[in-house]
Amino acid sequence: MPRTLDIQTNSFPIDGTFTISRGAKTEAEVITCTLVEEGAHGLGECVPYRRYGETMESVFAQIEAARPLIEAGISRSDLLSAMPPGAARNAVDCALWDLEAKQTGDSVAARLGLSAPQPLTTAYTISLGEPEVMAAQAREHAGRALLKVKVGTGDDESRIRAVRAAAPDAEIILDANEGWPEAVLERHLNIAAQAGVALVEQPLPAGRDGLLAEIRRPLLVCADESVHHTGDLASLADRYDAINIKLDKTGGLTEALTMKAEAERLGFSIMIGCMVGTSLAMAPAVLLAQNADFVDLDGPLLLARDREPGLRYAASLVFPPETTLWG
């Protein structure tokens, strides 16, 4: 029986509003690929991201254009050259991993050499807002081990200090989403270091981040928008200490595994992150995140409802996926 591909668009409401320096949204729009072959089903989810020129329509069309190759039985290795990095390839690649696991009976975890993948401490995201609002969010979640705090304005000192005061024991990541002007970069980095922040993500715009190579960095600075796939890594070594690997950027787990290995070889600290999606999108990332330095896979926690079955979350932990969900 030939392989068939089904492409679906889905929308999941966010619990409240998710706000970063580039804007706010109230729902997560995702695309789900289902591959069926000889009675086995493989699933993959992606989240198109406008910052990278993607829309639901463009990503759907990209997957549809690749349908002949996908249904003809393309391999994951050949997919790397047949489709560019990005959300579309991610959904197909992850569906192929899941399909292979279902067909062979060997879980993805086992194929990756993870005999017993462990639960991981994941960040929980505090949306950008006025300092007192962010402090209230941080206070509500102060018992979590790791908070990821959205910043990205010309004056974030009050936000940093308010969140730290509200959650004195939590490890904190700041994510500026390219929003810090060069004029405040060193000041904000120093304030973050004074507040005991562990890491700052993408303070300057991608392509305009050369200043990071010229200043003293008092804490880890992590590339997100500046890094997408393995080929980006070597050029970033002088300005970043860590990289954020997201499957929707790399174009799937296959490329992400290669990228992670090369980043470790180059001496980068590793963060495994996500877009705001469901447990289906997080599942392969949880396996990728085993032994990562920072894990930010809280997408389902930000939703008003998740897929069923979903990942198990307990306190600050996210647990490896059951094979009924993925892999």
TrEMBL record:
It is an enzyme of class 5 (isomerase). Residues 131-222 form the Mandelate racemase/muconate lactonizing enzyme C-terminal domain. Pfam families: MR_MLE_C (PF13378), MR_MLE_N (PF02746). SUPFAM superfamilies: Enolase C-terminal domain-like, Enolase N-terminal domain-like. Keywords: Isomerase, Magnesium, Membrane, Metal-binding, Transmembrane, Transmembrane helix. Binds 1 Mg(2+) ion per subunit. The chain crosses the membrane at residues 266-289. Its EC number is 5.1.1.-. Its cofactor is Mg(2+). SMART domains: MR_MLE (SM00922). PANTHER family: D-GALACTONATE DEHYDRATASE-RELATED, ENOLASE SUPERFAMILY MEMBER DDB_G0284701. Belongs to the mandelate racemase/muconate lactonizing enzyme family. NCBIfam families: racemase_DgcA. This is Dipeptide epimerase. The gene is dgcA.
